[in-house]
Specification:
Blueprint (H helix, E strand, L loop, with lengths): L1 H21 L13 H10 L1 H4 L13 H8 L9 H12 L5 H6 L4 H4 L6 E2 L2 H14 L7 E6 L5 E5 L5 E5 L4 E6 L2 H13 L3 E3 L5 E3 L11 H7 L6 H6 L14 E2 L7 H12 L5 E3 L4 H12 L10 E5 L12 E5 L1 H17 L7 E4 L3
Parallel strand pairs: 8-12
Antiparallel strand pairs: 1-2, 2-3, 3-4, 4-5, 6-7, 9-12, 10-11
Organism: Sinanodonta woodiana
Protein name: Deoxyribonuclease NucA/NucB domain-containing protein
InterPro entries: DNase_NucA_NucB
């Protein structure tokens, strides 16, 4: 009987929440050319997507009850316009049908819905949130990952203010890309409509930008986007061996591999294949993303090792096409990202600076 009362109480809470949502917040349609459903339809039906598996590997829409019950264990769902847009998104589609995509052997370049990213199913959103919260010391607990690259990068929804950020895990870089979900999807739809997104020679999405639109030369802005938590250096300092280098010589990068054995093995494999140890850092975020696409865009990572690791790093001039890749656990990419960023900061390795991959 007690269990029955608990169930009824929980059911009434959900019903009250859904009724409140149905009468909440007036539409923002007058501020936008497309609503969320229209933007998704434009993206899916655009010729760049129409012929790709991404257009038919999207799951069916979810009901409000399904969305609520999936998110409720990990998130305090508030009755505001930001959460309204989150619900609207998953009432259009439940994102990529991951198991079918993996079973059919589709590489990343087939499943990306927007440049560089696929829309995660709500179940994968929750699973990824739990992994990132547990394994990444630079992850903001208010973030909900919505789009993923399978190389450890995400487009995230900030549940505090509704803003959309892009987050590059290994570089621990993030920046705001849109004020909300609707504006983000509408922006992608308009770029597709206006011919500002193309498929490159590798079958991957590229955004056509002018020099003024790139981050080239704006290292100060990129550094402002670094949000390493206050104690990250203490967390990772024991993972990195620092030694005195000759004055004027490029600093040496050492990894300890306890938390990332497969990442270290990938580096060893790459060096055996004559990939360089001398690397030059870049901070141009557009180029970093292009390098990641070129290296990992055709990977088929799945299961527990669903994150693509590459060497040379995407954040170096030597990264990109031809990099040696391996499928690793997302937690390993998180560990490498933390160690690499502590090294960059401690050794003051900036844009175009050289360093040497000493170990493994």
């Amino acid at each position: 009987m007690t269990q029955l009362f608990k169930f009824l109480a929980h059911f009434l809470v959900v019903c009250f929440f859904l009724v409140e949502r149905s009468s909440a917040s007036p539409s923002n349609r007058d501020k936008h050319e497309f609503d969320i459903k229209e933007s998704i339809e434009i993206i899916i039906n655009h010729p760049l997507n129409k012929e790709r598996p991404a257009s038919y590997l999207l799951g069916p829409p979810l009901s409000e009850e399904e969305i609520f019950f999936t998110l409720q264990p990990v998130l305090e769902i508030r009755d505001d316009s930001h959460f309204e847009q989150l619900f609207q998104l998953y009432k259009v589609t439940d994102g990529l049908k991951t198991l079918e995509a993996e079973a059919d052997g589709h590489p990343l370049k087939d499943i990306w819905l927007i440049p560089g990213y696929y829309l995660m199913s709500l179940r994968e959103v929750v699973e990824t949130l739990l992994i990132m919260t547990r394994t990444s010391d630079v992850w903001n607990p208010s973030w909900l990952p919505l789009f993923a690259s399978r190389a450890g990068d995400f487009v995230v929804y900030d549940t505090e203010d509704g803003h959309i950020h892009e987050f590059l895990t290994k570089e621990s870089l993030r920046w705001e890309v849109a004020p909300n979900i609707q504006a983000f999807l509408e922006g992608i739809a308009k770029k597709l409509r206006d011919g500002r997104i193309r498929l490159n020679e590798n079958g991957l999405f590229d955004e056509i930008t002018t020099d003024a639109q790139t981050h080239e030369g704006l290292e100060d802005n990129i550094l402002d986007a670094l949000f390493l938590s206050a104690n990250i250096e203490n967390i990772f300092e024991s993972e990195i061996l620092m030694e005195e280098e000759n004055v004027g010589a490029p600093p040496n990068l050492f990894f300890k591999c306890k938390k990332m054995p497969n990442v270290c093995q990938n580096i060893r494999n790459a060096i055996k294949m004559n990939k360089p140890r001398s690397l030059q850092r870049i901070t141009n975020t557009n180029q970093i993303k292009k390098n990641r696409q070129a290296a990992c865009g055709k990977s088929k990572c799945k299961g527990k090792k669903n994150s693509c690791d590459e060497y040379p790093f995407a954040s170096t001039s030597q990264g990109g096409a031809g990099a040696t890749i391996m499928c690793v656990a997302l937690s390993e990419n998180n560990s490498q990202g933390g160690q690499l960023n502590v090294f960059y900061r401690k050794k003051s390795v900036g844009n175009n600076d050289w360093f040497y991959m000493k170990s493994p």
